[in-house]
Design a protein that fits this description.
The protein has about 375 residues and is an alpha/beta fold. Helix content is about 40%, strand content about 15%. The longest helix has 24 residues. The protein is globular and about 55 Å long. The protein starts with 14 loop residues before the first helix and ends with a helix.
Length: about 375
């Protein structure tokens, strides 16, 4: 028998990978499943993006290996985007590294900075990949609580009581996934000061800034943040390009160079046509965001009605691509709750527990569902 590496003992298959198999099986049996679980945008990129890719495919120079650092015009587009949207100045030559989706950046950053036994601060609830990647590289997850009573923000008194000498990286993400908590520049200032005090690399995962959010923010807006922080961002949600796999990591040249050392050994560059499409996306004007949010706003209103139909209490302050809702009193298991709805009403909703123990008692609805389908889900009750 060929045995697997011991590191696989530290992780399980990604929840959506296994659960969606179950959902597809129900669909194959003829069940009319409405999938409100996963945040994969069902809307299309702009016409300009599609045209840019179509033109690039005919470019005879566009089919070979590409630079590990991406096209210069892509890095410039990312720099201009951050300047225009956040007022953050970045050098496109050495402070920006395009990624094949920001998810791969989590692995690259971890490989670049974590040794076996290093500790990593991970939000609870939070994106499950932070934990799985930490385990895969042999580091130790240390969870910090986010709770509704504290607006889903860290308790700094509790953070200071943790054993911090071994902590190398702290993951955060605002707007927060899964709750939609906005965060604030005041919070970012506290986090940067905390990271400097304890010599921790702070990484903000920031893909939801422009969805239903009238005040987009970046961690890099904070003075001195580049000294201790990276930011991950993505075109997946903002520009409906999830399957294209285009993201970026931003920060000071020394930190970016360390990430590049890993990345350059992991892939051979992003397809030329996708990069040209990304450049076009980053040049979209204000009307793009306004039109997208009109759609998401109508979907959110309907989804909130569905949540309330289930007796749930919606977190009204949330922004981003999801609706976070508290289950009625007396419900002991969010996973059992969503499974009953899946098998009885054929609607798939995400249980809060997949994001951590503080997600128990909550469920998450995706807004990547057309209005008529959300209304159909309501009608099933």
């Amino acid at each position: 028998m060929i045995t697997t590496a011991k590191r696989l003992d530290t992780v399980e298959e990604y929840y959506f990978s296994s659960k969606l198999r179950e959902v597809r099986q129900l669909q194959s049996e003829g069940k009319p499943i409405i999938n409100m679980g996963i945040g994969s945008p069902d809307l299309s990129p702009s016409k300009a993006v599609i045209e840019a890719v179509a033109a690039a495919i005919l470019d005879e120079n566009g089919h070979g290996y590409q630079s590990y650092q991406g096209l210069p015009e892509l890095r410039k587009g990312m720099a201009d985007f951050y300047q225009n949207q956040f007022g953050v100045a970045l050098n496109p030559n050495n402070e920006i590294l395009p990624l094949m989706g920001s998810k791969e950046g989590i692995m690259h950053i971890s490989l670049a900075f974590l040794n076996e036994g290093d500790h990593v601060l991970i939000p609870n609830p939070g994106y499950p990949t932070y934990t799985s990647v930490t385990n895969l590289v042999g580091a130790v997850p240390v969870y910090y609580d986010l709770k509704e009573a504290n607006a889903w923000e860290p308790d700094f008194e509790a953070l200071e009581k943790l054993e911090l000498k071994k902590v190398k990286i702290m993951w955060l993400g605002y707007p927060h996934m899964p709750t939609g908590a906005r965060g604030s520049l005041a919070l970012f200032e506290k986090l940067v000061a905390f990271a400097k005090k304890h010599n921790i690399l702070l990484v903000n995962d920031n893909p939801y800034s422009f969805v239903l959010n009238d005040n987009p923010m970046s961690l890099l807006q904070i003075e001195g943040a580049k000294e201790v922080a990276l930011e991950l961002n993505s075109l997946s949600k903002t520009f409906n390009m999830a399957g294209w796999r285009v993201g970026m990591v931003l920060g000071n040249p020394e930190i970016i160079d360390a990430v590049l050392k890993v990345k350059s050994n992991m892939d051979s560059g992003m397809f030329y046509g996708i990069q040209k499409g990304a450049v076009a996306a980053l040049n979209c004007d204000k009307s793009w965001f306004e039109d997208q949010n009109k759609i998401y706003r109508r979907r959110r209103e309907l989804t909130e009605k569905l949540a309330e139909k289930l007796g749930c209490e919606v977190y009204k302050e949330g922004v981003g691509l999801f609706v976070w809702a508290k289950l009625p009193d007396g419900i002991e298991s969010s996973e059992k709750f969503i499974d009953e709805i899946l098998y009885e009403k054929h609607i798939f909703i995400t249980p809060g527990t997949i994001f951590g123990s503080n997600g128990e008692g909550y469920i998450r609805f995706s807004l990547c569902v057309k209005e008529e389908k959300v209304q159909e889900a309501i009608d099933r009750f």
